[in-house]
Amino acid sequence: MIRPRAARWFEALVAKDDTTLLLEALAATGAVELEARAGATLPEAFATAGPALARFADFRTRYGAWWPAEGLVASRFPEHPAKTLERGLQRLDAWAREAEPTIRLLEKNTGQRDEALRWHGILTVLKDSRVDLGALAQAGPLAQARLLAFAPGPEPPLPASLLVREITAGERRYAIVVGSSVDVDAAARETVAAKGRCHPIADWLTGNRAANLAAANERLSRIATERADLDAALERLNERHELRQALGDLMRLQWVIEHVQALESGERFAWVTGWTSDREGASLAEAVDRSGARALLHFSRPPPLSSAPLLFVNPRWARPFELFPRALGVPGATEADPTVVLAVAVPLIFGYMFGDVGQGLVIAAAGLWLRKRSPVAKLFVAGGLSAAFFGWVFGSVFSIHGAITPLWTDPLAEPIAVLAIPIGAGAILLAAGLLLHALGSFWRGEWARLLGEDLGLLALYAGILGLIAAVEFQWLALAGALAFVIGHAVHDGRAQALGSGLGELVERTLQLLINTLSFARVGAFALAHAGLSSAVSALSGEADNLLLKAIIVVLGNVLIIVLEAMVVSIQTTRLVLFEFFARFLTGAGRPFRPLAPPPTLIDGDLR
User: Fold this and answer.
1) Total structural domains within the chain
2) Phi and psi for 436 in degrees, rounded to 5?
3) What are the backbone dihedrals phi and psi of residue 488, each rounded to the nearest 5 degrees, phi first?
4) ∠ CA 581-586-589 to the nearest 5 degrees?
5) Is 599 domain-assigned?
6) Among 296, 359, 354, residue whose Cα is nearest residue 525
7) Residue 33: which H helix or E strand, with range?
């Protein structure tokens, strides 16, 4: 649990024609990272598919917007890649020849719909305007009129001689401009250069606003009816040419070539090899069986000199806190994974700084609501519950101190104690980091570093902290210092290393002491939170009526939750990354990168 686990090596012997079928099935599990053995290359059938796939890319550029987005089904029995490409491109050619007139009508229909929707929105805004849009549509040749649609951001400079009527319809900003053709063209160029658009005044507009709105609605209704007929016609073409299967086959083949860099292949069989996070192999075996691929799956020793990806192995309740070590990478094979320690320490740090029962429960509820949208939200569930607990400790409910009997005290009543406790807790956390570093030395078999540097530094740190209680701890500190310097020299194998060991000891000891004092910020933010809460409570107490009191309490709590949730999260992250991780973690491990899922899955049965 505290040591990363290496992924397992797998090999699959598959009939060559079923290679894409097997790869698709393995990728669907999300538990496979492909890695070919040394000397393997991409089979010729895949390597020579580039020109044909380039044609497919050209088809996608022209027609991709009109292809069906759902229901793409690849063939259950894949052919040789060359046959798949030939058959698929032939279907696309035949489909494109018949679909081109319909697609042109659809593109025209889309333009008409966009124009009608645009003017419908503008007409709704211009309800009190006397602008005669019909006259503007017929303007010329001396004067011209255009509709400019501005992109988000600053408006482009327009010629001063233009007559301009600015309009805001929904989230879009427009301007009707009237002037000479030279000035109107200049305004159009400036607008397009600023990523806006220039449109003519629609020729179906008149000087009557009500008639224009009725015309816009009638056009939208007619365009929708035409669109439904055109969509139905295109769908009939899709079915007649079996477009969904052709696209499914081509996209699957393209996916294989993009994600499989090398593959061992003979005349009849291919070897698919790599790493899996499925240590038992059950999900891989089940996926292969379901796919129908003629393949044999085997788990064996990895090739010599190969470097296995490393996996986090944590209980479910601790997995959200893997976010912190992942910020540096994956712990190396001989580095400790601190996730379980963080699952305890991070909520305590957060909750101590944010001690309030009501606010903590609000944060926890928000985390529960957002947990499926963002992995960070799960951290706020634990942090919010911890904040609610410390709110009980400090006797604070929605910034009202004394609403409940505190388990301990109001922070403002004993500020020194509130500052001191996080320093002591921080020392324990830093000591845990030193122990995790020692554990890594044990796994590497570096006994001199373990018994000398690691345990020596830990003894020195404990001795220095113990001097606060009794002077006798000086002997523990001295013994730790000697052990560190001697262990450093033994590990280095040179007597001259005694001097460099002494220098390193001084540096690391000073870093430890400074890092320990950094945890005072946890108490400082707890005091700051209590101060803000007291201000809200005092303001509400000065209010003359109950409604005003309630408004002050609600707004004050919203301000504290929004402001401190951000600040406290940043401080917690900083203490973990810079104070705690600096003791032992480098993130030198190789991460596991599963094969990306294919765009289509056979019959959808592996989804």
Assistant:
1) 4
2) -65, -35
3) -65, -45
4) 130
5) no
6) 354
7) strand 32-34
Residue 397 lies in domain:
316-583
d(CA 252, CA 271): 19
Q: What is the DSSP string of 289-354?
A: HHHT--EEEEE-PPPTT----EE----GGGGGGGHHHHTT-B--TTS---HHHHHHHHHHHHHHHT
550, 431 Cβ separation under 8 angstroms: no
The 8 Å CB, 24+ separation contacts for 305-308 are: 306/9, 306/35, 307/590, 308/6, 308/7, 308/9, 308/275, 308/590
Residues 506 and 550 placed together within one structural domain of the fold = yes
Query: Is there a single domain that holds both residue 207 and residue 147?
Result: yes
Question: In this predicted structure, what is the pLDDT of residue 142?
Answer: 81
Parallel, antiparallel, or unpaired for β 143-150 and 295-299?
Answer: unpaired
- pLDDT at position 143 is 87
* CA pair distance 241, 238, nearest whole angstrom: 5
- Domain annotation covers residue 598: no
Is residue 127 domain-shared with residue 162, that is, in the same domain?
A: yes
Q: What is the pLDDT of residue 543?
A: 84
439 and 361 in a common domain: yes
- Residue 603: inside a domain, yes or no? no
Select from 317, 331, 273 the least CA-distant residue to 298: 273
The token duo for 304 is 């010599």
Beta-carbon-side half-sphere exposure of residue 301 (alpha carbons within 13 Å):
3
Mean pLDDT of each 10-residue bin along the chain, 607 residues long: 91 88 90 85 76 91 91 76 88 95 96 94 84 87 90 90 91 92 93 94 90 93 96 95 91 84 80 92 90 90 91 94 93 94 96 95 95 90 96 93 88 94 96 95 93 94 93 93 93 86 93 95 95 91 87 93 93 94 90 84 41
